[in-house]
Design brief:
Number of helices: 15
Number of strands: 23
Bound molecules: NADP nicotinamide-adenine-dinucleotide phosphate
Distance between the termini: 55 Å
Helix content: 25-40%
Structural class: alpha/beta
């Protein structure tokens, strides 16, 4: 089924001269299919088509867009086992994870379909006119959110389905009425291509305009750069490294017309272990944290990369128990030889930083591309002075910080940069004494977790998957849950517009029956 071509709207195309293959990291061999990197002309054509599709797609009804999103979900399921086997052969992740991630992807699409069909997501606000107001009359003002225009989505290496071709960024942008051009991740080009074929089928079946979706192969920075700089692109979604995200953000904001680039980047997700809980349950927490650190070989943006506690004999026992657990877990394959090599290099650099000692490293030899999980330890004073120790090591790695007392713990936490999450492991009673610590943590994160590990991101509306820089480039938005749609819309007001010219969401009769704010009150009533 795989032919290595790009999807430029409804056409398949391979006009480029650069080819590449994906790698099966478990077998350490190349997969068969040759993929054709999109040429500059193909990039331009995909954006041009998206731009032409935009005015038509933006005006499709909520019902029609919901039907499109549901059809994508159905077509993805229709790919059956070929999608699952391609996913596994390109990532080294097990079949259970592939099936689980496909389920999450399909559910995300369906939840955006539900949101769009219900209609209130446009956040309609109506302030009616007061012609007799003194000293000047008040005009009739009505505001809703409208789509931004063509959106570029960068596929994420560590979520080939849920954060890639039909992942949360794509689903939310399509839901908003924005055509999408995906820059596929080179490590799972086949998985991306299959999903793209499903999206195109769904678009054709539901009569969406040609160009509503394109999928471009790439194995170098060129394609991404051309897309971000293209004048007809209006916003970008990215998940990956801080280096990549920051470079693309700078490109997006230094264009003649700057555009928003929502990047979700590095996070070390501090876990603060308080004394009473460690006294009672150090071995249970050692087990839980070891599992979280090694889950999918640590290749999650929510991997717990920093453990903090106050030095005492309970903390010592926790560290010893964690070392045992870490040494016992069988390592698994990482996503790609490059990621495995980067992990090994970054870990080795951390081991050489002044003051670090190795608490545990998986003791046996492992197959190529498998990540040997590692726990290091450092004093709070060494950590405070050395920003290198604050950097993400993407993989099954965590660093323990031993503080002398609460005061030092607070000082260390205040030094940590923006994060997706922070966890506090504590008894209910002892939490009361740590208000200040919790307040300092909250300033740094998008999600504060009590007695839980950061891995495992529930997909629901109350989830905040974002955080202050460098976790993301804009802490006001989330990349998970239906509120992710807010990244791709902008407000527009209509002043004294005749009713017949207003969009349905703002008409007096409220034909969509949506929830609106009318003169300061939430209501579904007509005017
Ligand atoms: P990446 O290196 O940031 O690349 C992500 C995507 O962005 C790739 O498709 C890449 O395109 C593109 N890209 C990167 N830099 C670019 C630039 N300067 N100009 C244009 N395009 C650029 O991330 P990755 O490939 O997913 O994994 C590498 C590392 O990222 C990992 O080792 C890890 O450190 C980190 N990572 C972190 C998270 C997280 O959530 N914290 C998630 C995934 C990865 P091409 O490959 O086509 O050039």
């Amino acid at each position: 089924m795989l032919d290595g071509k790009n999807y430029i709207g409804n056409q398949v195309s391979k006009r480029g001269t650069v080819v590449f293959k994906t790698i099966n990291p478990v077998l350490n061999t190349e997969n068969e299919t040759e993929f054709f990197e999109a040429s500059p002309a193909e990039v331009d054509e995909a954006v041009r088509l998206a731009s032409e599709a935009f005015p038509v797609f933006a005006e499709t009804s909520n019902k029609d867009r919901a039907t499109f999103l549901e059809a994508i979900a159905d077509e993805i399921l229709g790919l059956g086992t070929s999608l699952i086997s391609t996913y596994c052969s390109e990532t080294g992740l097990p079949e259970g994870r592939a099936i689980g991630e496909r389920g999450r992807t399909v559910n995300q699409l369906r939840s955006f379909a539900k949101l769009v069909e219900e209609g209130s997501w446009v956040e309609a606000v109506i302030d009616t006119a007061q012609p007799n107001r003194e000293p000047i009359p008040k005009p009739d003002l009505r505001k809703i959110k409208i789509p931004l225009g063509p959106v570029v989505v960068f596929g994420a290496s560590n979520f080939p389905l849920a954060y890639s071709s039909a992942g949360g960024d794509t689903a939310s942008a399509l839901a908003a009425g924005c055509p999408v051009i995906v820059k596929g991740h080179p490590m799972h080009a086949g998985t991306g291509s299959l999903v793209a074929s499903a999206i195109i089928k769904a678009a054709q079946k539901t009569k969406m305009p040609n160009g509503v979706f394109s999928h471009l192969n790439s194995c170098s920075n060129r394609v991404g750069e051309e897309l971000v700089k293209h004048p007809q692109v209006k916003a970008v979604g990215f998940t990956g490294s801080l280096r990549g995200g920051r470079a693309l953000f700078d490109m997006a904001t230094s264009r003649k017309e700057p555009i928003p680039l929502f990047a979700e980047m590095g996070s070390i997700n501090p876990v603060v272990m308080l004394p009473e809980m460690l006294k009672n349950k150090h071995s249970e927490w050692a087990k839980t944290i070891a599992k979280s650190v090694t889950l999918a070989s640590g290749q999650f943006c929510t991997n717990p990369g920093l453990l903090l506690g106050i030095k005492n004999s309970d903390m010592d026992q926790f560290i010893a128990a964690l070392a045992d657990e870490i040494s016992d877990i069988a390592p698994t394959s990482m996503l790609h030889p490059n990621i495995a090599e980067t992990y090994a290099n970054n870990k080795a650099k951390m081991m050489k930083e002044p003051g670090t000692t190795t608490v545990a490293e998986y003791p046996n030899e492992v197959a190529p591309n498998f990540g040997r999980q590692t726990v290091l330890k450092v004093t709070a004073s060494a950590f405070k002075e050395n920003p290198k120790l604050h950097e993400e090591v993407f993989g099954p790695y965590t660093l323990i910080i031993e503080c002398q007392n609460l005061e030092e713990l607070e000082i260390v936490v205040a030094k940590i940069e923006g994060q997706l999450t922070a966890s506090v492991i504590a008894t209910k009673e002892e939490l009361r004494g740590y208000d200040n610590l919790i307040a300092i943590l909250r300033e740094r994160v998008g999600r504060l977790i009590f007695n839980g590990v950061p891995t495992g991101v529930e997909v629901c509306q109350a989830m905040q998957h974002g955080g202050p820089y460098p976790a993301t480039t804009d802490s006001r938005f989330t990349a998970v849950g239906v509120d992710a749609i807010k990244r791709w819309i902008r407000p527009v007001s209509y002043q004294d517009c005749p009713d017949e010219l207003l969009p349905p969401a703002l008409k007096n009769s409220n034909p969509l029956g949506i929830l609106r704010i009318v003169d300061g009150t939430y209501t579904q009533a007509k005017l």
